[in-house]
Amino acid sequence: MNFQGIFSMSRKDVTTLVIFSIVVLAMPIWLQPFGAAYPDLMQRFAIFGILAIGFNILFGLTGYLSFGHAAFLGVGSYTAVWTFKLFSMNPIPALFFAVILSGLFALVIGYVSLRRSGIYFSILTLAFAQMSYNLAYSVLTPITMGETGLQLEASDPRIIDSMFVGEEAGLPVSNIFGLEMTGIPGFYFCAIFLLIGFFITQRIFASPFGMMLRGIKSNQTRMNYTGFNTRPYTLTAFVISGMYAGLAGGLMAVTDPLAGAERMQWTASGEIVLMTILGGVGTLLGPIIGAWLIKYFENIFSSFNENVLHNLFGFLPDGLEGFVVEITSMFVGEGWHLTLGLVFVLVVTFLPGGMMEGYRRITTLFTGGGGDGDKAKSEDTQTQPAE
Amino acid sequence: MTERNDGPSRRRVLKGAAAGLVTAGVAPTIITSAYAQEYRNKPTGDTVTLGFNVPQTGPYADEGADELRAYELAVEHLNGEGDGGMLTTMQPSNLTGNGILGKKVAYVTGDTQTKSDAARASAKRMIEKDGALMITGGSSSGVAVAVQSLCQEMGTIFMAGLTHSDDTTGKDKRRYGFRHFFNTYMSGAALGPVLSDEYGNERRAYHLTADYNWGYTQERAMKDSTEAIGWETVNTVKTPVGAGDFSQYITPVLNSGADVLILNHYGRDMVNSLTQAVQFGLRDKQVNGKNFEIVVPLFSRLMAQGAGDNIKGILGSANWNWSLQDEGSQAFVKSFGAKYGFPPSMAAHTCYVQTLLYADACERAGTFYPPDVIRALEGHKFDGMGNGPTEYRAADHQCFKSVLVVRGNANPTSQFDLLEVVQEVPREQVEYDPAIFGGELGPYEVAM
What we know:
The complex is a heterodimer of chains A (387) and B (448). In chain A, a hairpin with a 2-residue loop joins strand 2 and strand 3 (179-180). Chain A contains 20 helices and four strands. The longest helix of chain A is centred in the middle third of the chain and has 25 residues, at 231-255. In chain A, helix 2 runs antiparallel to helix 10 (183-206) and helix 4 runs antiparallel to helix 13 (231-255). Chain A has one domain (3-303): ABC transporter involved in vitamin B12 uptake, BtuC, CATH 1.10.3470. With 387 residues, chain A is mainly α. Chain B contains 13 helices and 17 strands. Chain B is globular. Chain B folds into two domains: 47-182 and 322-401, 3-Layer(aba) Sandwich (Rossmann fold); 185-318, Response regulator (Rossmann fold), CATH 3.40.50. Chain B has helices at 10-32, 61-78, 116-128, 141-154, 184-199, 213-228, 247-254, 268-279, 301-307, 327-340, 346-365, 370-377, 427-430, and strands at 47-54, 104-111, 134-137, 157-160, 177-179, 204-210, 232-239, 260-264, 286-287, 290-291, 293-298, 315-318, 381-382, 390-392, 399-400, 403-408, 419-425. By secondary structure, chain B is α/β, with parallel strands linked by helices. Chain B has a seven-stranded mixed beta sheet, sandwiched between helices. In chain B, strands 2-1-3-4-5 form a five-stranded parallel beta sheet, sandwiched between helices. In chain B, strands 13-14-15 form a three-stranded antiparallel beta sheet, with no helix packed on it. At the A-B interface, helix 1, helix 2, helix 4, helix 7 and helix 10 of A face helix 1, strand 2, helix 3, helix 4 and helix 6 of B. Chain B: It comes from Maritalea mediterranea. Chain B: InterPro entries: BCAA_transport (IPR051010), Leu-bd (IPR028081), Peripla_BP_I (IPR028082), TAT_signal (IPR006311). Chain B: Belongs to the leucine-binding protein family. Chain B: Keywords: Amino-acid transport, Signal, Transport.
């Protein structure tokens, strides 16, 4: 591949990338009316977007459903925090080690798990992840600090930092040469990685390697019969998506230097699967949208208590207001899981392709069903590989 | 790879990137100007917002719901509604039922899910979006430690809810974090002498311990205090959290030669392990010529409800119990019962007290400026809040007060009358040197 090859993207891909960049970078503006334009949630949007697109490289392209992706997220977080503690508060080395170590971890787990496919693969990954969780929660407490989570301490060595800057009061904050990675700068730092990650995914989707992965998804046996050894390809996809998860975990530690074991719990792995299915498996944008939706529900819907509802429905007559508040309060506050579940059921039942299928249906409705790019692509993925 | 002719030139890509970078550069200046203020979330209107961060889903949802009830009650009382509760019994008190410093108290809520990440996310939401000036709540030490360190970074005061691990005000203590609840060291120190009185000095103890930080510290505290009264520790076994079935851990106890089982479990774990230990007939056994006994170092009414008849006669420790007869406890139980129809749990009590203490500290400091409020809380001595004379020790932000040793009530008069107070162990007996746990509080002033 020559240098120009990297940039030779289809017109559609470039348009998507540009629009996506604008949407991501302008988040502090357009999220305002949704009540989501505060730094922490936007950081999460970016970080879980990275996690979801990485997961999609494995699940969306090869069809291998990993139920243990949260383990890589956790490994990334722990590595990043340890890098902060031992070497420097600069996020670059932390992210570097996070990606490398979670990649190695994925290599080991993938090497074993990928000997099986289908449900057996899922169960194997789930078992490995749950094992990592239990190790982090109890057995490895000296390294992970168990339940209380790994945190920075004033007495940490920070070898590199201590050579350049003197002792300061309080705990240090991760920073790139002075620019602190909290608040809005922290969000833009994550957003840049999301855009880079998105770009790489686009390139993978369009590459022969991506085609190969899709071939594995549609019929692995036939791929084998045509003379391809598929395992190196699936393993590569597994490691790449593990590195994405490690990057996401590292970024979580950068914006908020704490790593807890429950980041690796099976519910966290399940959440990643939900994000991808909700948004649209195998599509470029779908998993990101799914991730945003779930994080929005988790952070905003859970915060609506009865007070908020009474304010919201204050314009209604008293009796009716009480009734409406009673009904809606079941779905917000502690009931946010219920709402999410309902949305998930509805999406899976009526839009099996996720939110992206809904988008496609709407666009075909307006364009009269002809010559739509997305549609062409969805057909593309179903094409059987040539013999 | 084939060369595509319809693709854009490198220049176009670079142009796009440049446009993106400009957006990235401009947007922060628009946003950050809104944060420019003397300290974070300084209340400017006529209300002050508090953030109640409790587990609404997950294993401690019951405690969380009770905590939230207590917070709502506290807000009512601070705003001068209801019967005033502990506002009337608190000494000294600068609270008049006119909000805090004349501003009406408003609140926002969040769900910690008993996960550090979720708890930090909802705390950050309350601080960054809803403008909460103080965060309080939680029903586990992992969450408390995580949120406390976040609050230190953000410069927002954290009044911990139910958290029993030594770490919260020990190794992981923070300048901006305060704990009213007691800890495992105090549980051990309070239980030791009572165990010696009740069961003698020649006992052999077997520990089952929840396999996480709190369990480790609880086990250490119980081991130290029982060995100090001459007991021998036969074995300590770690059990996975949320195990459900403890039979494989209980069977070896039968043949170990131990005559006391100490269950360093909390919540559902404790309910399960205790129920199964009783079902295995441990309490009917005679070992070494003595009755076999079970001890549960941390007891709560909600757990006692779950364990049913099995808790009858079992010793443990508690921070507070609604059956206490002092004026403050009575006032709180009365107004809580009037509003909700049942007595409060000890989690509710500690959360209620914490809210009032914060409000009072603001009044005494005459400002919401966090460093001044912290100084007002440090070393503050108060009474009339259900635990007798209490002090917020300045060195580690831990409240020192008497600790209750309780016993499962053999003849309950109501479905809530599950624990009887055996002894109120005075403060002097459970006090310790703050240096033994290490840790560092950190600075008063926090850069933003």
